[in-house]
Amino acid sequence: MTDISTLFYVDDNTRGDDPSQANDERGSSGGAESDSGFTFRDDAPEDEQKGKSRWLRELLIIVGIVLVLMFVFTQFFFRQYVVPSESMEPTLHGCYGCTNDHIVVDKMVYRFSDPKPGDVVVFKAPTSSWDEGWSSPRSSNPVVHKIQDVLSLFALAPPDENNLVKRVIAVGGQTVQCREADGKGVTVDGKPLHEPYIDKQLQAQTYQQSGGVLGQGSCYGSDFGPIKVPEGNLWVMGDNRSNSADSRAHIDDEFHGTVPVSDVRGKVRFIIYPFSRIGGVGSVDPQS
């Protein structure tokens, strides 16, 4: 029979009480851990670079979309203009050296219809006689000039043309004239106009300040006409009748002071700045 102590002795040996055996087992265990195949690496810089690239790409896409929308909106629907002129007082406020009205022009309306009497319109100067006193807003530097041309497509720079704002008084086929002696003021096809947009007190003040030169009589200026407006053209005048270089001042040009409809940039709808003058700009038909 085997002694029990011998059994315990044998069990102790099999459990690896031998130091050398124990070291071998620990060494094998450490080797297993080191050969497990897992590698730890810091990916933060790479992820950060990818994040920046993604952010830049998304930003460029957003900017591109905004520019496309601005181009379409500006070229086909609405555009802001600043026309420094006191000729449309009190409907529009403007003068050199002061805060001029910023107006929004509807470019879509005249794609489907023609301007009508009473519409306040922005138009390009049709002949050189309208350009007196005007200078291009473009830089003399050819590179900057081209950049400004591109910016203008997105309404980020003014167009390189002399834009004016006036009210339509007569359209193609109608005859316009004014004779101070008859006391009727401006007439279209022999009928006097109804013009509530004219500030008579302002005309009287202009008359006094000019020493009787401007704002005189029922015409608020010199006699003119009769002039028959060619088809496809407009006769335009300022609401500040005594202080407006409108169609009357260009009778000697090739269009006899009239403006081709093709030169009209749009109908004035709103004043958006200064904030104290925000509001709509209505059409009052003077022939009604």
TrEMBL record:
It is an enzyme of class 3 (hydrolase). The active site is at 87, 166. The chain crosses the membrane at residues 59-78. GO terms for molecular function: serine-type endopeptidase activity; signal peptidase activity. One of its GO terms (biological process) is signal peptide processing. It catalyses: Cleavage of hydrophobic, N-terminal signal or leader sequences from secreted and periplasmic proteins. Residues 12-27 have a biased composition (Basic and acidic residues). Belongs to the peptidase S26 family. This is Signal peptidase I. It comes from Gordonia sihwensis NBRC 108236. The gene is lepB.
